[in-house]
Specification:
With 480 residues, the protein is mainly beta. The chain has strands at residues 2-4, 13-20, 26-33, 39-41, 47-56, 70-76, 87-89, 95-96, 100-105, 118-125, 130-138, 143-147, 153-161, 172-176, 188-194, 198-203, 211-218, 228-235, 239-243, 249-257, 260-264, 268-270, 282-284, 290-292, 295-300, 313-319, 324-331, 335-339, 345-353, 360-361, 365-370, 379-381, 386-389, 391-397, 405-412, 420-424, 428-433, 438-447, 474-479. A hairpin with a 4-residue loop joins strand 26 and strand 27 (324-331).
Length: 480
Amino acid sequence: ITFSWNSVGGAAGYDLRLFDAGTGNVLFSGSIAGAGSTSTLISLSNGSYVFAARSCSAGGFSDAFCGRFSTRGFAIALTAPAASPVISAPAQGASLASSVQTFSWSAVAKSDPAQSLFYEVLLLDVAASATELQITVADPQLSTIYSLHSSTSYELKVRACQAGCGPYSAPVTFSVNLPAVPSAAPAITASTISGGNSLTVSWTAVPRADSYRLLVVQPGGGPGGGALTVAARQVTGTTATLGVPAGTANVIVAGCNGDGCGPFSAAVPVNPAGPNPAAPVVGNPIAGTVFSGPTVSFAWSRVPGDNGSNTIYRLFVQDLSRQAAALDVYTTSNFWGAALKAEGSRYDVLVIANPGPSQVPGPASGFNLRGVSASSPTMVAPGHQSSVPSGNIQLSWSPVPNATLYEYFVAVQGQPNATAIGVTPGLLVQVPLSGAPTTYSAIARACPAGNSCSITSDAGWGPWSNAPGGPGVTNFTVTP
């Protein structure tokens, strides 16, 4: 929602509040610098609200330096389709013998022809009472493919959404009965390098495998000097070709089905002469696979000429379930760890070498993340170790399932006092920041469903993102 107000002569900025019209609870608190800064954005759901704004002097945004609030009451009723889809596959009560399945449904008419439409697909693991998959699919596509992870019972529902969502379809329940996880390891029969960086590998088939995972692992190149997967591929056949970086590595293969993977083959050493692939190629997560979250380890190949310190990589992860960014990091390493929203979310990861006018983007790699999400949000914007110009800076973070409020905290790096702090029901805010240049640190935390939280107390809040085991701090530089 866009909020706007008139400018006030002599104002240095504006103090902003958003209240729940029914309870009076503060849902958003924040500030905007500059007399001419007369608008802001807040993401909201259906409900009745009161927005309040007041002008403040250069002394700050407290009562001593601000005038009276002006208020405006309003309600939100998001545009949503009236009808529900009908699921056409799988059939009600079906018993499936393969892990890779296509879910399909019928089309639904738009409530507002001017707004885009998408379908939300929700798959529940009945036995575990857990969300296995929750993604959005843009209209007019009416299907999605997913690899089911275990032999159990599932419930599938689909609904159509615009600004808001319509009713769910009638649920379809079905079961999956897979063979046991492969117990034998494949044997690599050939590994050939051509052109200095193209590796072709062949191996033997193993019983009960419906796919195979091929990994190229470099020793000593990962965190703490550990091994690092610099190239990987999941295929249904027994041969694959992929780009690999220069240097000594080991090639291994495992046979898999939806219930898991069997033992890896004996390692076969290779030593590609190079050069490295021209664009960074993601080795982990493996494209097309389903991982257990919320922690994800990312790894990719270095580009030609990279000596470990002279090349910057931008790791960008898009949450395709929400059509929003999930991670944005600038680093000279070719690996990174992050905590992302799980519950069946679908992601695309993209690595860009030397972001800027001469940037080289690598191919996107998609994966799904099952399991339970982290209890603290991951800061998304600004990008970690990025630079942004002075002004009203947009902060955003990933969602924590069922959270009702979020609190953000921004401070000059290494200093304990907040430069900007506030609460909001949404996933983005704007805060005024300046620099000469100046490096800031940002963190966020969530208020779990059922808890009562406020900006004046720690009671009820979940852990900050920089708590032990959390996704960490985002550092960024603000330039003049």
